[in-house]
Amino acid sequence: MLKHGLRRRLALLASATALLLPLGIAQAGAAPATAHTASAAGPIPGAYISPWGSADVAMSPQFKQWTEREGITVEAISPFKMHPDGNGFSMPIGSTAGDGLDSKGRIYYPGGLRLHLAATGQTVTLKPTWIRVMPRPGYAAGVELNGRTISEETQIADTDYVEAMEGARPSPTGFRLERIPFYFTQEAEDLIETYSDLDAPDAGTPFGTLTPHFDYVPGQPAFPGLPG
Q: Which has fewest Cβ within 10 Å: 9, 135, 183, 228?
């Protein structure tokens, strides 16, 4: 039963990816998610990839160099947790963690990030957090500056379906997508330079990689004998 259910979800994921790929290409020039984008949309009941899981984000060397050069410290907002070395963060995922696909083609994640700018005393909060599935796959977030909303949703970093699915691997409790790369968007560069004196990363600069682990029975291997 478990294996049949997992195969079904893997098939659904592959089918969704195949269906969304041409849509993403066709709408690559679609209007970006900006401060004018309404962000309120509830999850679609039952629309999720897995009930349990976790995800790890590794910040790129370019992103780390930028934060160090500009005197920026990064703080995780619960349930996100910074890695001990400060080079990334982790978060719970799955429907039991409150995730879900909404009608705007986004997967919502509780938590977010805060960026503290030492030179100006400003604090930028990136929350809510979404991974966009369509029309442009990527990382999006609401943006606050010193507690004031300046964007209900901005696409911070882009990825693409091909790179995401290249890392698909089975795991003992489900499957994972290894090291999906994300790249800063033009919207993120423009927003940073509009609201600060920082020299923003150029669009296309690597932001980091995302490795989500999708689990179906916590602690019970779905594929015995395979590495986690």
A: 228
